[in-house]
Amino acid sequence: MNKSMMKTNPLLKFFSNSLIFLPTPMNINYWWNLGSLLGLCLMIQILSGLFLSMHYNPSIDQAFNSVIHIMKDINQGWLMRLIHMNGASMFFICLYIHIGRGIYYNSFMLIETWSIGVIIYLMTMATAFLGYVLPWGQMSLWGATVITNLISAIPYLGNSIVEWIWGGFSVSNPTLNRFYSLHFILPFIILILVVFHLMFLHLTGSKNPLGSNSNMNKIIFYPYFLTKDMITFIMILIIFFIFILQFPYNLGDPDNFIPANPMITPIHIKPEWYFLFAYAILRAIPNKLGGVIALLFSILILLLLPWMNKYYTKYPKFNPFNQCLFWIFCSSFFMLTWLGGKEIEYPYIQLSQIYTILYFNFFFSTQFFNKMWNFLIFK
């Protein structure tokens, strides 16, 4: 690449510094590939969503039929829709593994990078929720009604805010229109945040599995890690296309094949699988306002991790307390996801309460156990 061109073109310089000359710790493993996979997922979602938006009609009378029109009448429309629909699940699978890796290896100590990452996570959840409403099936309508109604738990202002979001006294045409507009614009905001996320990461440098000083042994990103990323790109795309061509509707809800009907409530209203852990926490609290606070706190608590782990261990790979707590946290996350899809009855409510305690216990107990481990090892 011509160096004079790089000096005159800042965009070219940014990409060359990010994809070619970036100094990278030589011992990072495949868990660090999830960041680039998330970039791939984001581009797939933006491009497939752009094509779908050309034929989608954001009207309560035409939305459901326009989705059928895309599936049946548009050339390769079925493929675009299945890619976009299942791409959201692929995005969240990669996102949760990426966050899990960050927690396990204490990457949250890169405070600016971590904070922007959590904001991206929140924006992604908002985008996914808005997108789930757009097909205007039964679960889309009632899921939107239930989730937006949670805001009514805010004292004094709650009901007014809900009506302002709806654009009326129920989820109707104005709601669908504004959800469509927001669903279209939010991915581009996420894209801007991703650029800032990478900028801060490049300023501080990546962590590594050993937790040691990464500046001692670094190599350039190209060709070593770019080749490594390409391998995972190919693997994930093969798995992804096998899934969308063989099991396209396995992660969806059958009720969403029924056109939205405000006069008939589904027997069991639940969100998509990637929201179920938060939904289970919401249902575990008997008080409505308390449940909403717990739901928000289950995500926002990630922002507090750098300060809650003041006595964090620099070598998490060799800390048995950290590892035990982390895997208990992961098991509680999986169990809450499973419980979120179950009926509101015994024993699922009681189990949800137990695993909610275990979920939050991880964040409050790690500081104590890290301090104890540091005392035992470095006394």
From TrEMBL:
InterPro entries assigned: Cyt_b/b6_C, Cyt_b/b6_C_sf, Cyt_b/b6_N, Cytb/b6-like_sf, Cytochrome_b, Cytochrome_b_C_euk/bac, Cytochrome_b_N_euk/bac, Di-haem_cyt_TM
Gene3D superfamilies noted in UniProt: Cytochrome Bc1 Complex, Chain C (1.20.810.10)
Keywords per UniProt: Electron transport, Heme, Iron, Membrane, Metal-binding, Mitochondrion, Mitochondrion inner membrane, Respiratory chain, Transmembrane, Transmembrane helix, Transport, Ubiquinone
Any one GO BP annotation for this protein: mitochondrial electron transport, ubiquinol to cytochrome c
Cell compartment(s), UniProt: Mitochondrion inner membrane
GO molecular function: metal ion binding; oxidoreductase activity; quinol-cytochrome-c reductase activity
SUPFAM superfamilies from the UniProt entry: a domain/subunit of cytochrome bc1 complex (Ubiquinol-cytochrome c reductase), Transmembrane di-heme cytochromes
Residues at which heme b b562 binds: 84, 183
Any Pfam family matching the protein: Cytochrome_B
Broad class of the protein's primary localization: mitochondrion
Cofactor: binding details: Binds 2 heme groups non-covalently.
Required co-factors: heme; heme b
Domain (Cytochrome b/b6 C-terminal region profile): residue spans on this chain: 211-379
Subunit and partners: The main subunits of complex b-c1 are: cytochrome b, cytochrome c1 and the Rieske protein.
Protein family membership: Belongs to the cytochrome b family.
Entry function: Component of the ubiquinol-cytochrome c reductase complex (complex III or cytochrome b-c1 complex) that is part of the mitochondrial respiratory chain. The b-c1 complex mediates electron transfer from ubiquinol to cytochrome c. Contributes to the generation of a proton gradient across the mitochondrial membrane that is then used for ATP synthesis.
Name the record gives this protein: Cytochrome b
Chain's gene name: CYTB
